[in-house]
Structures
1.
Amino acid sequence: MTYDRLVCANCAAPVSEGRCPVCRANRERLQQENFLANLSPLALIALLTVLVAAVALLAHQAA
Ligand SMILES: [Zn+2]
């Protein structure tokens, strides 16, 4: 997702330039969303790895 071409409703400048407080707030929010979007697949993989390890450990103990 890109916000390069988003135009601010307050100052009519590109949000990515951060010319007014509205721009800066929007830019920060969008960057945070990008960060979370990039983070979540990694978090899912980490969670899956932990789950598989736990299941493997339990299966080993049961056998
Ligand atoms: Zn603005």
2.
Amino acid sequence: MVEAERMRVSVIGTGYLGATTAACLAELGFEVIGLDVDEAKIDLLRSGKVPFYEPGLDELLTESLQTGRLHFTTDFAEVAEFADLHLICVGTPQRDESGAADLKYVNAAIDSLAPHLTRPTVVVGRSTVPVGTAATLAARLAALAPIGEEAELGWSPEFLREGFGVEDTLRPNRIVIGTDSPRVEKAVRALWQQQVDEGVPFLVTDLQTAELVKVSANAFLATKISFINAMAEVSEVAGADVIQLAEALSYDDRIGGKFLGPGLGFGGGCLPKDIRAFMARADELGVEPALSFLREVDAINQRRRARTTDIARQLIGGNFAGRTVTVLGAAFKPNSDDIRDSPALDVASTIASLGAHVTVYDPAALERAREAHPELNYATSMLDAARGADVVLLLTEWAEFREANPEELATVVAQKRIVDGRNALDPTYWRASGWTYRALGRQ
Ligand SMILES: NC(=O)c1ccc[n+]([C@@H]2O[C@H](COP(=O)([O-])OP(=O)(O)OC[C@H]3O[C@@H](n4cnc5c(N)ncnc54)[C@H](O)[C@@H]3O)[C@@H](O)[C@H]2O)c1
């Protein structure tokens, strides 16, 4: 733990980002209060239960609660009284068909907090917002706070990855703070002093650049995934193998191998909505052509879902009606129970809508999936899910599925047919066990 000055910190919005942030900051030694408008979520957190799946967070939350450094509330007056630094971590979902970000939660958080700010205070946004939002919120904060301009707002985008949230928060790869206020910069520096001392880059920018860092990082990552998936489309018709192609590309360190895995593509609560919100904002700013390539990035990504469905349909003879289909995976990625814009569930519900009896299994996301997609069937183990299947689709690359034993699975299915939507299995091994194996981007 650092010996630096200890601020009292509030974390407003305790979802994936906020709950992880609150527990990690308490672990680092800060006095932390987490606030959410969702009382059920706050009750769970108070009782030491994380309302979602994030490896390592349960233990950290329990430890932090025991130290007495971490509390939860639903009362804005209490957090205003308690903390000197407020971190805004509320959601910024996609608004509608326009793709623009819905800012009602960030606006509401500022509107609820500001009237209680009667002493000089720093508010730092961590949610992902369209460029230009923070400047508007800074003015809104100063106008509504009794302390006026002494309630200052900066923006510090968050780069944590679900599934690695604790690790990424305790050891971020960079810290960016958008502000021109020495007080805001000092507060954020104090928050991450230990990390900065350990060599984590600390970048101070203007508000707009800080906002852009996050959305452009996500746009780049989405583009890289869709790039290799476009190569998968070409490979399929040209008779090439996209896995070998990706490996050969990865040895060029200007390209690198990360985010170059061909498959069903990206989903989740960040990349899809962030690239759409980025395009919508570019449109508003009159620079729509600059980001028009992201439309294609999004389209390539959606096409992978359709292609996966097509491959499965071909495998069972052209018609899903009355067939039994197993989907392995519901979360948008492994080590998470987040099903927001999950490619796996999208494909599963498309196949169900075409008349198949679809059974889904996921190690962590079953409950959420069941709630969101009651039209699907669910099983509590891979083998149960695969019983009687005419085709099995692997759509989220959990280790449990990567390590599946083809001979064991063969004992329960009706037909040994598998679509490897994540290129997670060894085709030679599965074919040797008598399976018909199909994957995206390969022959
Ligand atoms: N999930 C991630 O891995 C991740 C990573 C980086 C950035 N982000 C960004 O962080 C933000 C939050 O994402 P998330 O995944 O944690 O979302 P989430 O939906 O899991 O959590 C948002 C929380 O905010 C709460 N909330 C809504 N309005 C509120 C208000 N007025 N006051 C207090 N709480 C309120 C909700 O009840 C919810 O618990 C988004 O902008 C997202 O793009 C997320």
